[in-house]
TrEMBL record:
GO molecular function: transmembrane transporter activity
Source domain of life: Eukaryota
Transmembrane segments: 12-35, 83-101, 149-170, 182-206, 227-244, 250-275, 287-307, 319-337
Topology term for the membrane: Multi-pass membrane protein
Keyword Membrane (UniProt): yes
GO cellular component, one term: membrane
Source organism of the structure: Diploscapter pachys
Full protein name: Major facilitator superfamily (MFS) profile domain-containing protein
Length: 380
């Protein structure tokens, strides 16, 4: 679709371009359920926060590097269509790499040792045949009424509203309240993403280390992380209201960087909870989460428009206070209802548990064989 958009825009007009953009959005809807399912099939609970933090760094890298690259293409002799061609070429290149090296699950991977494969099958999700996957029913009622999933959905809605504000309305806020120039505005709105990038990776590594050493439980880890995200974000939004005006742009920059830092812990909070509470239904729950995500993006302009009609400092402060209260409510809901453990509706059947017990015996045998092979090699 990216490669067709320039042609449609130049030669066929608005409706064809809109259709191409619509199809691009439809195709994008498959990505989140897909890579969330990959993570639940490849990473144990104690490693999922780090895995999520690493692959979502693409969001921040796109903000930091995407705009300059796009601007360079627009100023080149190829013009703006090259932005879409570059995106299309990158997508094709990634598809080729995935087809060569990618696997849906450990038992389909051809490039790993037996010990690794058995370890992942034992500690991640159970192997299912095609018949088992087809016959598996989704417990919609139990899933949609589960307290941990409801907590995730609400936190997902709130963080979407807050991030949409940061991405779309922050430039307008800095222009109206801080009176920044266009160049300063661009730096102000893009640099905080760097701090988000750095913190979420370091925080996820710390959280997973604590879980691996049994210092904190999975549920404690997601609740601590989500509390940092929402209570921290609420605090810094409130501080912006209290102390920021056009005479303090540096303070505003520090506070919005702090907000982005707090948002980095979301990956180890509600997002990790999503991948932990029902691993075999991750794709379905991710799709539901995307619907809530879209609702959040639609609601954000309504919230901003309700409190801000003329762009005065007082009206912007009302918007930020509303977001501060909304963020606090998400933290309270997740502390009360959130979880990092597999829920009752998602527990594995007895047959799967028996298979895993057999796998434990296989992994011991495989390790013994590996040690014997190494000993024979050393003797020779």
């Amino acid at each position: 679709m990216n490669s067709l958009i320039p042609f449609f825009s130049i030669h066929l007009g608005y409706y064809f371009t809109f259709g191409a953009r619509f199809m691009l959005g439809v195709s994008d809807a498959f990505t989140v359920p897909f890579y969330n399912s990959i993570i639940t099939n490849w990473f144990p609970v104690a490693e999922r926060s780090t895995a999520l933090a690493i692959y979502t760094t693409g969001n921040q890298l796109a903000i930091v590097f995407g705009n300059p690259i796009s601007a360079a293409f627009c100023q080149s002799r190829w013009g703006w269509p090259m932005v879409y061609y570059y995106a299309a070429a990158s997508a094709v290149g990634w598809c080729i790499v995935w087809l060569i090296f990618g696997s849906n699950s450990p038992h389909e991977c051809k490039k790993m040792t037996t010990v690794e494969r058995i370890y992942l099958n034992e500690n991640v999700v159970a192997k299912k045949t095609k018949e088992q996957r087809k016959s598996q029913k989704i417990p919609w009622v139990k899933m949609m009424t589960n307290h941990a999933f409801i907590a995730y959905l609400y936190c997902n809605f709130v963080i979407t509203v807050l991030i949409t504000f940061i991405m779309i309305y922050l430039p307008t806020y800095t222009k109206d309240v801080l009176l920044l120039s266009v160049l300063a505005n661009g730096a102000f709105t893009s640099l905080p993403s760097v701090f988000n990038f750095l913190f979420k990776v370091m925080w996820s590594l710390l959280v997973d280390k604590l879980k691996a050493n049994h210092i904190i439980t999975p549920t404690a880890s997601v609740k601590i992380s989500q509390s940092l995200t929402n209570f921290g974000g609420a605090l810094f939004f409130f501080l912006v209201v209290m102390f920021v005006d056009c005479t303090r742009p540096i303070l505003a920059f520090v506070l919005f960087c702090s907000i982005n830092v707090c948002f980095g812990a979301q990956i180890s909070g509600a997002y990790t909870s999503l991948l932990s509470i029902a691993p075999q239904f991750t794709a379905t729950m991710s799709s539901v989460g995307m619907c809530v995500n879209m609702i959040g993006k639609v609601v954000t302009p309504m919230i901003v428009g309700y409190f801000n009609t003329s762009g005065t400092v007082l009206e912007w402060n009302r918007v930020l206070l509303a977001f501060s209260c909304l963020s606090c409510s998400a933290a309270i809901v997740f502390l009360a209802l959130g979880s990092g453990e597999v829920q009752d509706f998602a527990h594995e059947p007895k047959e799967t548990i028996i298979e895993k017990e057999e796998d434990k015996e296989l992994i011991v045998t495989a390790r013994m064989n590996s040690l014997q092979a190494e000993s024979m090699t050393a003797l020779n």
